[in-house]
Design brief:
The chain has helices spanning 40-48, 55-72, 76-87, 94-108, 112-150, 178-186, 204-214, 226-231, 257-266, 287-290, 299-302, 352-358, 360-368, and strands at 2-3, 6-7, 11-14, 19-23, 34-37, 158-162, 191-196, 218-221, 237-240, 244-246, 251-254, 271-274, 280-281, 303-307, 313-317, 330-333, 340-343, 346-348. It is an alpha/beta fold and 369 residues long. One of its GO terms (molecular function) is S-methyl-5-thioribose-1-phosphate isomerase activity.
Length: 369
């Protein structure tokens, strides 16, 4: 996608500097900063501190981290060490471990002298695959938006509610939940997006920044406004992303997603999840019982970052002194609340049969593991 008219991916390899470049998302939407990632510690910090964020982007970043490790020391021992170090950074998004496992398995099958070049090439491939997956998710989600638009009076937009940021800066490009929105807009289908603020990190502001840059009509709303809008017929469908999805279709996403799904169910609003296949955890069935939920720093709850009146980016405390903050970063939406899963291979029901029907190859491998 574009920033001030220039195309960017969320990360890219700079051939001249022989190093990975990332968009440091901590400063968005107020300031656009690019950072070079030079060491394994830099990679870990980028993931932990959410300089990069979003399950697909975390996975791609980890792949480049493994490439860095293979370039400095391609031994089995060092690859295992890098795997363990990066695996500890964030526990919920499954793409992290998916990418680490894929890299380690491929590299260990090669002679040590071939590993460095192969690791970098694999990281490039994982990034390119993510872009293709997200584009195809957009194509399949576009069909849903087309159907709703066809039943609308002329000029009335399809009203979509989304939660958190499952946009291009949460992936390598296109985004997951936003990809159908971009493609609908580019097809001249009128849409309007309700953007949840998504406390505590206000990641909806990133979605608003993206959509505004692309010319898509949108409104930034408080997290608790979505149910009200659904009650009054102002939401045609919900599309969110996912950080981990179980083999039966339970969806783990940013905290607050579950409440949106409950409101959608109560008001007969379709609730879709944009699902790239690397976010499917075929080893897990019951998301509520089995998915580890990351507990982040309480300061993210007690303080808010924003732009001050004199143009500085700063933080203010919003709680009384001494009040603790609880900060579970994700929640799980059970599959019975999900209307459908929008994947790169098509749209399916949120069930074991639905996922296995679209991904028989992956389901078969999981069953035999």
């Amino acid at each position: 996608m574009k920033v001030n008219g220039t195309h960017y991916r969320s990360l890219w390899w700079d051939e001249d500097k022989d190093a990975l470049q990332i968009i440091d998302q901590r400063w968005l939407p107020h300031e656009f900063r690019v950072q070079q990632v030079n060491t394994l510690q830099d990679f870990a910090d980028a993931i932990v501190e959410m300089r990069v964020r979003g399950a697909p982007l975390i996975g791609a970043t980890a792949a480049y981290g493994m490439a860095l490790a293979a370039g400095s020391d391609p031994s089995d021992e060092n690859l295992d060490k890098a795997w363990e170090y990066l695996d500890k950074t964030r526990p919920t998004a499954i793409n992290l471990r998916w990418a680490l496992n894929r890299c380690r398995a491929k590299l260990k099958a090669l002679p040590e002298g071939d590993r460095a070049a192969a690791a970098l090439q694999l990281a490039h491939e994982i990034s390119d695959e993510d872009v293709d997956i997200n584009y195809r998710i957009g194509q399949n989600g576009l069909e849903i938006i087309r159907r709703i638009a066809a039943g609308k009076p002329d000029g009335e937009p399809v009203r979509i509610l989304t939660h958190c940021n499952a946009g291009w800066i949460a992936t390598v490009d296109w985004g997951t939940a936003t990809s159908p929105m971009y493609q609908a807009h580019d097809e001249n289908i009128a849409i309007h997006v309700w953007v949840d603020e998504t406390r505590p990190r206000n990641q909806g502001a990133l979605t608003s920044w993206e959509l505004g840059s692309h010319g898509i009509a949108h409104t930034y709303i408080t997290d608790n406004a979505g149910g009200h809008l659904m009650q009054h017929g102002q939401v045609d469908l919900v599309i969110t992303g996912t950080d981990r999805t179980t083999r039966r279709g339970d969806v783990c996403n940013k905290i607050g997603t579950y409440l949106k799904a409950l409101a959608a169910k109560a008001n007969d609003v379709p609730f879709y999840v944009a699902l790239p296949s690397p976010t499917i955890d075929w080893t897990v069935e019951d998301g509520v019982a089995e998915i580890p939920i990351e507990e982040r720093l309480e300061r993210e709850v007690t303080h808010v970052q924003g732009l001050t009146e004199d143009g500085r980016i700063g933080q203010v405390q919003v709680t009384p002194h001494g009040t603790p903050g609880g900060n579970p970063a994700f929640d799980v939406t059970p599959n019975h609340l999900v209307t459908g899963l929008i994947t790169e291979r098509g749209v399916c029901e949120a069930s074991a049969d639905g996922l296995a029907g679209l991904f028989p190859d992956l389901a078969k491998v999981a069953r035999s593991a």
